[in-house]
Automatic annotation (TrEMBL):
GO terms for molecular function: DNA binding; DNA-directed DNA polymerase activity. It is an enzyme of class 2 (transferase). InterPro entries: DNA-dir_DNA_pol_A_palm_dom, DNA/RNA_pol_sf, DNA_polymerase_A. Residues 315-534 form the DNA-directed DNA polymerase family A palm domain. The keyword Secreted does not apply. The keyword Nucleotidyltransferase applies. This is DNA-directed DNA polymerase. One of its GO terms (biological process) is DNA-templated DNA replication.
Length: 574
DNA sequence: TAGCATTGCGCG
DNA sequence: AAAGCGCGCAATGCTA
């Protein structure tokens, strides 16, 4: 995350079947260039990294870094041109005439396969593969120049530099996490499945699932009902006098009928079976590791997405299957109320900062007197950040508006801008996408003389939808930036820990994974996999990194980001 | 029969 | 059927 340093840059790209490395000084002036056979690339990268520790500039991280990792080579820093382009392309702080806005070849999806397959060694065709950004050296060099110019043209260059460094560090970590994997105890997973779903029988349906299904069919008097078919289930419910409009758990739970209990039970079991059952285990867990595909920057707000394996939806039920290797342990940490804390800092709302002083921000709101109990405080705060207008949440929001006028003013203003078709930005300068042409047309049609009330209603509804999106964008996006800085700082600190004395056996994974490393990340939570002897140091690294992330974003502004942190062999909660 | 939309539910 | 943001995925059923 050192962005103010004077490190040099090395641009990597392809040319006629080889790699080319262009060495630049800190100002971007070319020092020299060298041609490297692809087979020699890992060794050469290792040498350059050891001697110069440059910031590696490449088209996209998975394409370059995953083969390097597979060859046992790790780098400290990079600049991911594709991710940087996606940010600069729309950044409101960048000059509207900047050429980076026109280099559309870089508006590309990441060149990763989404399946559980392993990385292949530089096997991209010279003539650009189906997707992914350009890979040739000339394209990389010219895009890098456009991006440097864009940052220089920005009204907030230092924030943007920080954002690009953090985003790129995230890309390195995502590739490393995929390579290392999350330690997963398949036997424990199997035990959980068998305990919950019942023994697998020859018929295929586990015993408890079959039993729940039988009770549902009996209660509805329909022995051949396909419960998994929503339309059929709905009709059967209606025939039995259960007059629901949907088959969602929320609505069913309000009904009183003998079918409700077994049906909710069936849905719970069927969900576990189809989402994370034995088929999932066989497909996604190998050699004691779950290796999901993380997609940094995959969400418009800057959050990560995932592709394959459902890495971002691991049910709490299965967390006990996350288990450290023999001789190793896990440091599991999550930030308490990240988003409202970020909002307090962004808006310099001293009342909300005061509420955030302790470990529990919602308790702080209660102490401040704005709202009577913690549960309501939480609902109100979420409602304020999401744009609730009705229900319990909507009713409570005005009280927060009175108690925390600056914080609420910030999100209200973001919503107003969004409704008007404007663009909002995060703390470090990631901007929301502009409204679509269709959205604009709808709004202008509604303001013309010949318009119908239906047009007006529809336009207003869509305007409010967009307002809720931009309202949340500034908070969710800035929280994602905080989390990226946390991760990047953590990675650096873990890498600096002394080597493990008697390296405990680790049964799979790349060389760097024999050292404490980040094994999982989910918006506001990290899991570090570490040899036991380094557990305390790793936990300290997690805590120190959080404090440093706060300083990077908000300087000396007095806002804390307390962690719930524990050292344990498994990741199970409570 | 492949591709798309809908429904529902898991996560933050 | 969430009121109120952002996602991914599986199963089903319809359509081209």
């Amino acid at each position: 995350m050192d962005v103010t340093d004077t490190a040099s840059w090395v641009v990597l790209g392809r040319s006629a079947g080889d790699a080319v490395a262009v060495h630049l000084d800190a100002d971007g002036a070319e020092v020299r260039r060298e041609r490297i056979a692809l087979t020699a690339l890992p060794g050469r990268v290792r040498e350059i990294e050891a001697s110069a520790a440059p910031r590696w500039v490449w088209g996209d991280t998975p394409g370059w870094y995953e083969p390097l990792l597979a060859a046992g080579v790790r780098v400290a820093r990079c600049h991911d041109l594709r991710l940087a382009h996606a940010i600069l392309r729309w950044a409101a702080s960048v000059d509207s005439a900047a050429e980076v806005r026109r280099s559309t070849a870089w508006d590309a999806a990441p060149a990763v396969e989404s399946g559980p397959a392993t990385a292949t060694l530089f096997d991209l065709d010279d003539e650009a593969s189906a997707d992914g950004p350009p890979s040739d050296i000339a394209a990389a060099e010219s895009e890098f120049v456009r991006q440097r110019d864009a940052v220089a043209s920005s009204t907030e260059p230092s924030r943007l530099r920080l954002l690009l460094a953090a985003e790129s560090a995230g890309a390195l970590i995502a590739s490393e996490m995929r390579a290392a994997g999350l330690p997963w105890d398949a036997a424990e997973h199997d035990r959980i499945l068998t305990r919950t779903l019942g023994e697998r029988s020859a018929g295929g349906t586990p015993a408890h699932v079959a039993a729940a299904a039988a009770r549902v069919r009996a209660a509805l008097g329909d022995p051949s009902l396909s419960i998994d078919s929503q339309p059929k289930l709905l009709r059967a419910l209606h025939r039995a006098g259960v007059l629901v409009e949907s088959t969602s758990r929320w609505e069913l739970a309000e009904q009183r009928h003998p079918v409700i209990e077994p049906l909710l039970e069936y849905k719970k079991l069927a969900r576990l079976q189809s989402a994370n059952g034995w088929a999932w285990l066989a497909e996604w867990v190998h050699d004691g590791r779950f290796r999901p595909v993380y997609v940094p920057g995959g969400v418009v707000t800057g959050r990560w997405a995932s592709s394959g394996g459902g890495a971002l939806q691991l049910p709490r039920q299965l967390r006990a299957a996350v288990r450290a290797d023999e001789g190793w342990t896990l440091v599991v940490a999550d930030v308490a109320q990240l988003e409202p804390r970020v909002l307090a800092a962004m808006s310099s709302d001293s009342a909300l900062v005061a509420a955030a002083r302790g470990r529990d921000l919602y308790a702080g709101i209660v102490e401040g007197g704005a709202i009577a109990d913690r549960a309501d405080a939480k609902i109100a705060m979420l409602g304020a950040m999401y744009g609730a207008t009705s229900g319990q949440s909507g009713r409570l929001v005005p009280r927060l508006r009175r108690a925390y006028p600056r914080a609420m003013g910030l999100v209200d203003e973001a919503a107003r801008i969004g409704e008007d078709g404007g663009v909002v930005s995060t703390w470090l300068g990631r901007s929301s996408p502009p409204p679509s042409d269709g959205w604009r047309e709808m709004q202008s049609r509604a303001s013309q003389v010949e318009t119908t009330s239906a047009d007006v209603d529809r336009a207003r509804r869509h305007a409010r939808d967009r307002g809720r999106f931009t309202r949340n964008f500034v908070v969710q996006g800035t929280a994602a930036e905080w989390a990226l800085c946390w991760l990047a700082e953590l990675r650096t600190r873990l890498a600096a820990l002394p080597p493990v004395s008697a390296s405990p056996a680790v049964h799979s994974g790349p060389a760097f994974a024999r050292h404490p490393h980040v094994a999982f990340f989910l918006h506001d939570e990290v899991i570090v996999h570490t040899p036991r002897e380094h557990a305390d140091a790793a936990a300290r690294a997690v805590t120190d990194a959080a404090a440093q992330a706060a300083r990077i974003l908000f300087g000396d502004f007095p806002i804390d980001f307390p962690l719930d942190i524990r050292i344990d062999a498994t990741a199970s909660k409570g």
